[in-house]
């Protein structure tokens, strides 16, 4: 596939789809290294920012993993297993389990999100939250939320997020109730020094990694988030029900 410059489809998306097709057809088998950013720029005559956005999109879809100083490598395909889970605020679910949840807000900013996140929240203007969550005073979770700025502009100035859950704030302030969502959970290696330091683990350690898009009662996007759970302080419990 070639890049069509007159197409309304963004260049990064075209490049991502071209690389995706190459991965899915076996041109780049699991474990193989993709061409470098410079090689992709030259091969497809696009800028480095376009290449980086395309690689971010593939990493978001679990097709590749990027390693600093080494490049991007194709991952083994993972078997999807669908499970139904209760969409409860973390504050409530931890209280039920007998833990005291506390929160520290690290960042609360208006940003231009990465392209794949802008696609998820439906706009290129986002409120970015980065928070540390503690169970009985011990950090166990780093979470990053991206919310559409046009829907929740007052969130940028809110000082309530260390006292109430984000879902409680959105329901009370905007009548936007977290109702449904699509969550992916997997084991992943930490490749960001900041997250490793925040969780007090080594770089490339395996952690429980979540990503989710959440929708409100009107099926509008509420948020996109990513979270990293400390491997020794989190246990995933799932209630199973068979449908006849």
Model description:
With 244 residues, this protein is of the alpha+beta class. It has 7 helices and 8 strands; from the N terminus they run H-H-H-E-E-H-E-H-E-E-H-E-H-E-E. The protein has helices at 11-24, 37-44, 48-60, 90-96, 115-121, 166-174, 193-199; strands spanning 64-67, 71-74, 101-111, 126-135, 138-148, 180-189, 206-215, 221-229. It has a 6-stranded antiparallel sheet. The protein has a two-stranded antiparallel ribbon with strand order 1-2. A hairpin with a 5-residue loop joins strand 7 (206-215) and strand 8. The longest helix is centred in the first third of the chain and has 14 residues, at 11-24. It is globular and about 55 Å long. The chain starts with 10 loop residues before the first helix and ends in a 15-residue tail after the last strand.
**Order of H and E elements:** HHHEEHEHEEHEHEE
Query: Are there runs of 5+ residues with pLDDT below 50, and where?
Result: 79-83
How far from one another are the termini?
45 Å
Strand proportion: 25-35%
Keywords: DNA-binding, Transcription, Transcription regulation
Pfam families: GntR, UTRA
Domain HTH gntR-type: 9-77
Protein name: GntR family transcriptional regulator
């Amino acid at each position: 596939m070639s890049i069509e410059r007159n197409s309304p489809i963004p260049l990064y998306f075209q490049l991502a789809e071209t690389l995706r097709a190459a991965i899915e057809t076996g041109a780049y088998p699991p474990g193989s290294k993709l061409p470098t950013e410079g090689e992709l720029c030259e091969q497809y005559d696009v800028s480095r920012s376009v290449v980086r956005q395309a690689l971010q999109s593939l990493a978001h879809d679990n097709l590749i993993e990027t390693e600093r100083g080494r490049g991007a490598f194709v991952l083994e395909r993972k078997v999807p297993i669908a499970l139904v889970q209760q969409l409860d605020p973390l504050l409530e679910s931890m209280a039920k389990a007998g833990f005291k949840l506390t929160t520290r807000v690290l960042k609360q900013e208006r940003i231009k999100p990465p392209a794949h996140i802008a696609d998820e929240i439906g706009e290129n203007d986002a409120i970015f939250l980065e928070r540390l969550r503690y169970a009985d005073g011990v950090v166990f979770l780093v979470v990053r939320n991206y919310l559409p700025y046009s829907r929740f502009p007052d969130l940028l100035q809110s000082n309530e997020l260390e006292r109430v859950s984000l879902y409680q704030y959105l329901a009370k302030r905007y009548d936007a109730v977290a109702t449904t969502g699509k969550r992916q959970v997997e084991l992943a290696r930490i490749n960001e020094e900041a997250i490793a330091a925040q969780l007090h683990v080594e770089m490339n350690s395996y952690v429980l990694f979540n990503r989710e898009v959440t929708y409100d009662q009107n099926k509008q996007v509420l948020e996109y988030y990513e979270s990293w759970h400390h491997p020794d302080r989190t246990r995933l419990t799932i209630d199973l029900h068979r449908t006849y």
